[in-house]
Predict the structure.
Amino acid sequence: MRRFRFLAVFFALLFLLEISLLFDPIDRQVIRPFSSVVAAASGGLLRLIGQQVNISGTVIAGTCLAIDIHNGCNGVEAMMFVVAAVIAFPTSWPQRLVAALAGAVILQVANLIRVVTLYLVGCYHRTWFEAFHLGVWQSLMFGVAVAFFVLWSRRTKLVHAP
């Protein structure tokens, strides 16, 4: 029964979070500004390693490539997966909140690495870009999200429902 409840709550939360991305006000007021922060942070890292890039909103542009950070490339969907899984898990609310925050931070660090490496792959190995963008990094981001949840949930004390 506990597994069924977890799965039902997880899928319901994930559905609601994903549906929220379809609303224009959420996209304009939350997602695009967040994507701009991802672009600025990634652009800053690229500059630190010697890349000549300009950042304008969600676009990172250099002499060799321009990339635009959208949903799916900003780490938000992976964070939604972790948040839905953590919130659905039967443990204390403080543990859930800490895990949701830790998962979001880990996924955003992974996403920064993703954006930086995708820019570099696009500049120096253009033919590899789509494979890395749609195959390698999509799989790795999902893998990080799943691994975080599995490791966290195995180490977390369950709260038994009355």
Observations:
- The longest helix spans residues 93-124.
- The chain has a mean pLDDT of 94.
- The two ends are 13 Å apart (CA to CA).
- Residues 2-155 form one domain.
